[in-house]
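User: For my dataset I need records formatted as: sequence, then structure tokens, nothing else. Please produce one.
Assistant:
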Amino acid sequence: MRKEDRENYLFQKKCLLVLLFLYYLNDVSFDAITLRSFGFHFDPSCAFKCIVKSKKNHIHKYVVHVFLSQYGVNYENMDVMGNVNFIRVKKIEGIEFYQPEASLNIYFDGAQFVCSGFIEGKNIERTYIKKDKNSVTDELLYHLSNDFKNDSCNSSASSFILWLLKFYTYKLHTDLVIGAGINEEYGAKTWSGLLDALNNDFYKGDYKFANEIKHYVGKELFTSSMVLKTSGFDAYKSLNRELYMFEAHKSFNDPNCTLYKIVDYIKDHKGTSVITYNYDTNLEYLLNKREIRYTTIYDDSSFVNLDSSVDIYHVHGLLPYDKYSEKRFTDSLIFNESEYYYLYNNPYSWNIAKQLHDFKFNTCIFIGISLTDPDMKRLLELANNYLKFNFIFVKKEPNYSETVYKDITTYFFTFDLIAIWIDEYSDIGKYLSSI
């Protein structure tokens, strides 16, 4: 996507988010809205249609126009009931606003907006002007998802972020996308901690030697397939130990842990998909314990069972406990450099096809993922879809500036991700149990 097209795409996505926020403020239920990208006469300024079922069961159709500049916009002609007109301006300050008699006009510079007009029969006036001068990026997205003074203004959800989450999971097939952070509560290592532990095994605790090697190659030598074959280091045996033989901080049967809450969600939402980057079978273990049927997909010979409540896609392979010497499992692992390069340069592999499809067309909820992997970010950017969002849970850190959260929220948005900031991991379970 060209730079200009990318900027226009992100502007249009922000317009969608602002419109949904206005519906939330006007007590429109999350299940009363349908978005459509077809079914209207050709109009280059028409971005999409929004169909709303009113509280009296009337159907209201809104045609959403996005004008990328004020030049040539005929406000009188566009002042028609059911029109929502986003007008891009360079700056909100000093702009003369047309007062509509039937439409809803929203003047928007990408970070601040002023709206005036009618929505669901109500005359609304709302202004958002950036306040924090320390923020590197705009505050808009963080403001919309953390505008707690508007909590409980909507009868279908207690906050806008929950309303948005309910809206997309209600309308679309849902994927839970999980990473190494999901096991951290139990005492397992994060991905970086796992690499450090394997590094320690490979270099036999010689950190000076390890750091000198990394100075030149930037990665661990044990991730090179050639070095693995000639060094005598059994990476899969070490990996098995780190995945399963750690000192547990909590029981896997603890109902307050995030992975347990994920199983609760799966139990209540048959047909859910899970995309996991983890090699372990911890999720399968919990599903077995609770007698929930599942299908595990980890290579080309796997298949989906229609009787299952959940399909689990191990897109980087699977290593069950003590199976580190079984070729069918070690061959499935995307672990060393050459395997990563092959996978992410092969768009026809099932692993990549699954991620691209679901990131683009399903509602994906990312849990225990840091978004530091450039390959994942590349897939997210390739899978952009201007009418939907994915979601990512991000834990706040002690003593971090609020400005950091604002800027990271904006950064995640460039990948179509809505950041849900949480104070404790237990908050994830609360959100999952609410949708």
